[in-house]
Design brief:
By secondary structure, this protein is mainly α. It contains three helices and no strands.
Length: about 110
């Protein structure tokens, strides 16, 4: 429950900090591209969340792999190979999500 509360407070703080940026972008010029600032802000928020999620995932993989290697040193090679493959798949998904965020920011 405490972890869920921390995530909620973080998201709330992120949205509160975004509001002045979006308001300033809208006040700068009320033309056809006024919504592009909002899209760019949301894309930046999405990219940040993607990076945070990838960092947490890779950190957890590394920690659990080291713990597994300490419990069974004879399986260290197999665990390390599986860890590297998993980290590479997470990185690929992260890069894909970042590209999507950049494409939708325009």
């Amino acid at each position: 429950m405490y972890k869920l509360m921390k995530v909620f407070v973080f998201c709330l703080a992120a949205f509160v900090l975004i509001v002045p940026v979006v308001a300033a972008e809208g006040a700068a010029g009320a033309d056809a591209t006024a919504s592009s600032g909002f899209n760019g802000t949301l894309a930046a928020l999405g990219a940040g969340l993607v990076i945070i999620g990838a960092g947490l995932g890779i950190g957890r993989i590394g920690g659990q792999a080291v713990e597994s290697m300490s419990r069974q040193p004879e399986a260290a090679g197999n665990i390390q190979t599986a860890m590297i493959i998993s980290a590479a798949l997470i990185e690929g998904a992260t890069f894909f999500a970042l590209i999507v965020c950049m494409l939708f920011s325009k």
